[in-house]
Write a structure and sequence with these properties.
Blueprint (H helix, E strand, L loop, with lengths): L1 E6 L3 H11 L5 E7 L2 H11 L3 E4 L8 H11 L4 E6 L4 H10 L3 E4 L4 H12 L4 E2 L1 H16 L9 H11 L4 H8 L3 H15 L4 H10 L10
Parallel strand pairs: 1-2, 1-3, 3-4, 4-5, 5-6
């Protein structure tokens, strides 16, 4: 038996899926969740083979729930079942660890076959999702890779600045003079093309520069 958990915030969708899947001799629906938080709780309780996961749900969406499920129970497979076919949904879902991506207009028999394919270790993608995934991957490949423009010492200063420290506190932490700190901060603003400490801190968070350099 293929043990399936349904996660969808619409009661009618859950009921429809339950009604149809119960007619399959090789599929058992072990639970229903109306959001990502419940999905994780029921995965822990019932240990399904496959989670039919909606994308947009309250409290925790399907992508976040999938990430948590795959990080804790990597053998449990996730099949996204959603109304969204654009690359902004498809790519994050697959990167989160989903084994398949189908749209809710799928024929019932095709959905069952998708479940069986995933159980066999195969991937299953709606044609529209395949197109969007390929487009999304091409865009990711063409994006310029981030290059840290700061010297190791400037990154150290930025990391301390991000913590909300004053110039004096930064100087004390790094064992340099306040004048040196001011010079580094001026260089940081110029290189990052920011106007103030707040913008610099936001830049640091966005590009994962909140920790001291490896040379610290």
């Amino acid at each position: 038996m293929i043990r399936v958990l349904i996660a969808d915030d619409h009661h009618v969708v859950r009921r429809g899926l339950l009604f149809f899947l119960k007619t399959q001799k090789d599929i058992e629906v072990v639970g229903e969740a109306k959001n990502g938080v419940e999905a994780i709780e029921l995965v822990q309780k019932f240990a399904p083979d496959i989670v039919l996961m909606d994308l947009v749900m309250p409290e925790m969406d399907g992508i976040q729930a999938t990430k948590k499920i795959k990080s804790k129970w990597p053998d449990i497979k996730v099949l996204m079942l959603t109304s969204f076919s654009d690359k902004d949904h498809v790519l994050p879902a697959m990167e989160a660890g989903a084994s398949g991506y189908q749209l809710k207009d799928i024929e019932p028999d095709d959905l069952v076959e998708s479940i069986r394919q995933i159980m066999r270790g195969e991937n299953t993608l709606h044609p529209e999702a395949t197109t969007q995934l390929e487009e999304g991957l091409r865009e990711e490949e063409n994006k310029p890779h981030f290059i840290n423009p700061l010297t190791p010492r400037e990154q150290d200063v930025l990391a301390e600045l991000t913590k909300g420290k004053s110039n004096r506190e930064i100087a004390s932490s790094l064992y340099v003079t306040e004048k040196t700190v001011k010079t580094h901060i001026s260089n940081i603003f110029t290189k990052l093309q920011v106007q103030d400490r707040t913008q610099a801190a936001l830049y640091a968070v966005k590009h994962n520069l909140t920790e001291p350099s490896e040379n610290a």
